[in-house]
Amino acid sequence: MSFETIRIDITSETKIERLLIVRLSAMGDVMHTLPAAQALRAAFPQAHIGWLIEERWAELLCAPGSPRRGPRSSQRPLVDEVHAVNLKGWKKSLCSISTLQRVATVWNDVRGARYDVAVDLQGAIRSAVLARWSEARVVYGAAEPRESPASLWYTRKVVARGRHVIEQNLSVAEALLEHRVKVPLAQLPRNLPHDPQAEARIGRRLGEFGISEVAILNPGAGWGAKRWPAERYGGVARGLADLGMRSILNYGPGEEELVRAAEAASGGTARAMSCTLTELIALTRRARLFVGGDTGPLHLAAALRVPVVAIYGPTDPARNGPYGTRSVVLRSAESVTSHARRAEADEGMLGIGSEEVMGAARELMASDLRG
User: Which of 26, 84, 271, 327 could form a disulfide with 55 if both were Cys (CB 3.0 to 4.6 A apart)?
Assistant: First the structure.
């Protein structure tokens, strides 16, 4: 799914010189926030822009080992400062001196930045509270946020527009801008960190596997109802190998059993690879195709404009589907939209076979050759 332009608008109040974006988690949601952040960067090229994010996702904004504040570079291309929090970890040891010191350090940094405006693009109570605690003079957020009480902490409430969550985030960002203009969405850069060391590691690993033309298959997902059977990914890997493309099976913590089943079913045509976020960015940049469900890695692939075969079940692709890249979305009419974190497989997804996925892959690969 892609759209030609975004419209950007606001009433003129004060010049925005320091701007804080609040989107704490998770991976896919951060990817869905990037276009809004990039639109703000395009509108305020000289502004100091910070981002408040959970520590585990900070690599999506800044490569490991790179300074988290200061002049932007290829390793931190979008924001001038990354403020990382660890809310879950802090909650476990809230009374310890080390935790209190870390909390104080983060909040001294946030408040010391003296942000003019904070924009909450998460819509949760915790993100809204943190945006307000930043001491920014103005706090923007959606008039109907994901958690309704969050709006109590906003000083400017924006009616979000659009069906896809990226469009909704963009419409909130529009409220900060002074003039109504048209911006080609395709021209917004996909500003993700480049890390030379991660690029080199991925290159070596692919070389050891003898892989040049690579597809990424992602059997995991946030909960069971979003997972397509792992063995069927093995069947897709065999089909891609017949077309001259080898597959990497990406997996994260707790997904070892899934990836072993997919690897065994691939008959040696796919290799499992666990990556850090920075390595996954480097790997995805090399990919010719991504196959997976509604997951963070899928939305990363879309952000990097990798062609995507998306296998959807309980989540609605009109709202959460791949955006801004060539894609084929497979979803059964039997699937019912629900965000309930059910462990059982979605019946509609079970009706999607490997050959159907391979047909979508062939379609994308053929259009890639024509293009």
Answer: 84
Please report which helix (H) or strand (E) contains residue 241, including its range.
helix 230-242
Go through the domains of the chain in sequence order and give each one's CATH number.
Answer: 5-187 (3.40.50.2000), 196-370 (3.40.50.2000)
DSSP letters, 95-107, are TSHHHHHHHHHHH
Instruction: Tell whether omega for the bond before 26 is within 30 degrees of 0, i.e. cis.
Output: yes
Q: Which among 185, 61, 170 is positioned nearest to 119, based on CA atoms?
A: 170
Q: Is the dihedral of CA 307, 311, 316, 320 positive or negative?
A: negative
Q: Are 368 and 245 in contact (CB under 8 A)?
A: no
Residue 91 has pLDDT above 90, yes or no: no
Token readout for 83 is 């403020």
Burial degree of 259 (CB within 10 A; 0-12, 13-18, 19+):
buried
Rounded Cα distance between 121 and 101, Å, is: 27
The pLDDT tens digits of the residues spanning 229-270 come to: 999 999 999 999 999 999 999 999 999 999 999 999 999 999
Contact assessment for residue 23 and residue 53, using Cβ atoms and an 8 Å cutoff: yes
Q: What does the pLDDT look like over 174-189, one tens digit per residue?
A: 999 865 444 566 666 6
Q: What is the 3-state secondary structure (H, E, C) of 248-290?
A: EEEECCCCHHHHHHHHHHCCCCEEEEECCHHHHHHHHHHCCEE
User: Taking a C-beta distance cutoff of 8 angstroms, is the pair 315, 294 a contact?
Assistant: yes
Structure tokens at 173: 């960002």
**Residue in the block written with tokens 């001196």:** 97
Predicted structure pTM score = 0.93
Rg value, the chain, Cα: 21
Torsion 359-364-369-371 (CA) sign: positive
Find all residues with CB under 8 Å of 79, minimum gap 6, and list them: 21, 37, 41, 49, 50, 51, 61, 62, 72
Where does residue 232 rank: exposed (0-12), middle (13-18), buried (19+ CB within 10 A)? Answer: buried
